[in-house]
Specification:
This is SCP domain-containing protein. By secondary structure, the protein is α+β, with helices and mostly antiparallel strands. It has 2 domains: 183 residues, CAP (Pathogenesis-related Protein p14a, 3-Layer(aba) Sandwich), CATH 3.40.33.10; 85 residues, Domain of unknown function DUF5300 (Immunoglobulin-like), CATH 2.60.40. 32% of the residues lie in helices and 21% in strands. Helix 1 packs across helix 11, helix 6 runs antiparallel to helix 7 and helix 8 crosses helix 9. It is globular.
Length: 346
């Protein structure tokens, strides 16, 4: 069997299906073999060919890869880009169209993995075209709150793999949930995406949204899952793929129904005109720029609800679904992006 010669292919293979199994807390997806070791054997097989592709990169590319990297900036930008695509999926369509334009007739990208190194793909252009179609119809979901402790867990796993390891299990056998617990995070549920080979935050998100070679598009599922409320990213060098970036997700501890207050803070450039649940207005008048408002949910209102939010100016209505509202704070930042925070988020 001829193995695919790809530089960044592993991010679109075993990680995705493993991640979705963790994230959803269910059994293996139907396209995953019942024997986990067989699954790993099947999906890790391209590694040798990828390593050979890396070895064929020229000296200039290797020197570039050895330049100092500001991992902290990349990690922060990953969460920023992640929230960008969650809150405005259509904003990434021009980015993917530009990515598609770089592909040759075979669906490969010359110099895509360094000078004189061609990035080859499993699915070629159809995967990118499918991702663009997906984004056209994907509704916005809530922004993720950066959790320092979740980020520490992600960073520890990235550092653990610097010798060339791959996958979701740490070298000491720790699982994702065990790593989160070690850093003081006790989530209701958790998930993980791992990307190998990308050198920019945008590159990581492109890789995960296209999800080349993954029939289940498991990375993409994690990207847009409304289940996650907090997240953190950790990146580092990798002996085989040059870089590894881990994104860990969690659903924060749900507040009790007795704590039925929702706080709204507007640090944006436009007024917050409306927040509705099932067409019922929650706000006592618009929240002006620089102002805040506390909302008391009715006694029969569930903590979990779907919101419809309307900002002033030319902003379209935002549907934000499956949110745990009790005890939470909705914040509009200076770029008019929304985030949801909990007192126990980290």
């Amino acid at each position: 069997m001829k193995l695919p010669r790809r530089y960044r292919s592993f991010a679109g293979l075993a990680v995705a299906v493993t991640a979705i199994a963790i994230a959803l807390g269910v059994g293996y997806p139907s396209d995953r073999p019942n024997n986990p070791s067989a699954f790993l054997s099947t999906y890790l097989s391209p590694i040798a060919a990828q390593a050979q592709t890396l070895a064929q990169s020229n000296q200039s590319s290797n020197q570039s890869a050895n330049q100092p990297v500001n991992w902290a900036t990349i990690e922060q930008n990953i969460i920023t880009e992640h929230n960008r695509i969650r809150q405005n999926p259509q904003s990434y369509i021009p980015i993917l169209e530009a990515y598609l334009a770089r592909m040759n007739a075979q669906g490969n990208i010359p110099n895509g993995c360094g000078q004189n190194c061609t990035l080859t793909t499993n699915e070629g252009k159809p995967a990118v075209e499918e991702a663009i179609r997906f984004l056209r119809n994907q509704p916005a979901v809530g922004a993720l709150t950066l959790s320092d402790n979740v980020a520490r867990a992600a960073k520890a796993h990235a550092q653990d793999q610097q010798g060339g390891e791959v996958g979701h299990t740490s070298s000491d056998g720790s699982s994702l949930s065990q790593r989160l617990t070690r850093f003081g995070v006790q989530p209701l549920s958790a998930g993980e995406n791992i990307d190998y080979g990308s050198t920019t935050a945008q590159g990581v998100i492109i890789s995960l949204i296209v999800d080349d070679g993954v029939p289940s598009r498991g990375h993409r599922t994690n990207l847009f899952s409304p289940n996650w409320t907090i997240a953190g990213a950790g990146c580092g060098s990798h002996a085989v793929y040059r870089t590894v970036c881990v994104i860990d997700y969690a659903k924060g501890s749900q507040a009790t129904a007795a704590n039925n207050r929702l706080s709204v803070i507007n640090n944006g450039t436009v007024d917050l005109l409306s927040i509705k649940i099932a067409e019922r207005e929650l706000l006592n008048g618009a929240v002006a720029r620089g102002q805040s408002q506390n909302v008391t949910l009715s006694a029969n209102q569930s903590c979990t609800a779907n919101l419809t939010i309307q900002l002033g100016g030319n902003y379209s209505r935002l549907n934000w679904n499956n949110l745990d509202l009790c005890g939470a704070t909705i914040t509009i930042d200076s770029r008019n992006q929304l985030s949801l925070r909990y007192p126990t988020s980290s």
